[in-house]
Structure formats: structure tokens, C-alpha cells
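Human: Not sure, check this?
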Amino acid sequence: MIEISTDPDRLDIDVIHRFLSESSYWASGIPLDLVERAIENSLCFGAYDDDVQVGFARVVTDYATYGYVADVFVLPSHRGQGIAKELMQAIRNHRDLERLRRWHLVTRDAHNLYATVGFHALEAPERHMEITVKNAYVS
């Protein structure tokens, strides 16, 4: 049975860093110190199979009005079991996030997953702006 926890002491930083830096399309090459800083400044959710971390997600938030969902992943060995959906449901149901008025995330290929917990395309894309740094982790 998969357990979802926000206990920061349970996070396996090596697993998280390895996946993000070596297997993700969004954070390829990210240095360990940046992963550690991101974790320290976010509400993190770990997915565990018998105390072994198999999934991760984090929310960058002010705990009052806004939450940005980032770095969602499930290890390949545990995909197809609904773990990512469990992570997202835990995020959306977390008591410290229940009053947020705006949620945001960016995805290339997981739109269906996020739609199951209420995400949709931007209602007013003309209001949103961004700065994107290409190859941010390449020296």
C-alpha cells in the first residue's frame, strides 16, 4: 500500500535529485544544492512503498492565496498504479492549502492527470506572463 506523507525527514533527497537531474525533461542537470533549496522552501509530498520513496511532488506556496505545483514524478517501477493521482489528491486536500484561490502548474504531457483534480487550461491566457530561462542548468 502506498503512503503519502509531508514529513520532510522522510524525503530521500538522493532519489529526488537523481530523478529530476537525470530523468525529467523539466529539470535535467539541476544541481543538488538547488534541489535541496527548492525542497526547503516548498511543501513537499512523498509517496512511499514500504518506506521506500517512489514518488514526489512539491507545492511552492504562501499558504494563503497561491500554490504552484512542481516536480511531480513517480519512479518508472511504480507507474500505472495511480500514485501520481494519489499525490495530486493529497495536495488538493491538504488542510494548509484548502483556501488557496489560485493554483498553477506547467506540464508537457500530463494534462489528463491534472484535470482529474480540477486543473484546466488558462481561462485568460492574455493575463499571464512568464520568463523562461532556456538551459538553466547548463554551465
